[in-house]
């Protein structure tokens, strides 16, 4: 598994018995897994009594590193040997590696289901409609005298079984010109990519 330098440093801190004893380590790993599979994010997941003596910045860094490692392992369908060798490279002892892997096995199927439910296709634009709006005054009765465009995009979301929805936004003339320019650049890039 390839992990960023920041994630590696967080996991190395987590492996240090001077910073996290085995009980605190086990609780943090369990909390990391639970925070990934819970239906709603809870900001108090790190408010465990075992974490009171640990620096909050270090705790958050280690929690983020653990969740990144967990997701990477599930994404790559990592087995015990892959996870063990990765954690041993990060100075985990055998006992911590076993704790991590046993909790990994406990939550693996839930995480696989969660990751498989994440969509892969961005919405596809079916139709565009627009309307010019000219504002003369704002809510403070000051003269504004500026045009704005109300844009409505009808998009089809392949991740939701092809259901369509409307996205609405407002933009100024400059913002609209910027959007059109970026869309033209994207179309040219796609055209070049298909010609290769």
Automatic annotation (TrEMBL):
GO terms for biological process: sodium ion transport. Pfam families: COMM_domain, COMM_HN. Belongs to the COMM domain-containing protein 3 family. InterPro entries: COMM (IPR017920), COMMD3 (IPR037355). This is COMM domain-containing protein 3. Residues 124-194 form the COMM domain.
């Amino acid at each position: 598994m390839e992990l960023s330098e920041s994630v590696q440093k967080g996991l190395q801190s987590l492996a240090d018995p001077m910073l996290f004893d085995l009980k605190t380590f086990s609780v943090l790993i369990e909390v990391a897994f639970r925070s990934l599979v819970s239906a709603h994010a809870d900001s108090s997941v790190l408010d465990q009594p075992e974490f009171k003596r640990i620096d909050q910045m270090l705790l958050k860094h280690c929690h983020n590193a653990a969740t990144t490692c967990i997701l990477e392992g599930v994404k790559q369908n990592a087995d015990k040997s892959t996870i063990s060798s990765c954690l041993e490279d990060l100075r985990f002892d055998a006992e911590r590696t076993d704790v991590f892997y046993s909790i990994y096995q406990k939550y693996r199927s839930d995480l696989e289901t969660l990751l498989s439910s994440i969509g892969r296709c961005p919405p596809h634009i079916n139709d565009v409609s627009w309307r010019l709006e000219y504002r003369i005054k704002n809510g403070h009765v000051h003269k504004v005298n500026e045009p704005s465009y109300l844009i409505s995009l009808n998009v089809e979301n392949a991740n939701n079984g092809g259901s369509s929805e409307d996205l609405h936004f407002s933009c100024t003339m400059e913002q609209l010109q910027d959007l059109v320019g970026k869309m033209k650049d994207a179309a040219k890039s796609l055209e070049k990519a298909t010609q290769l």
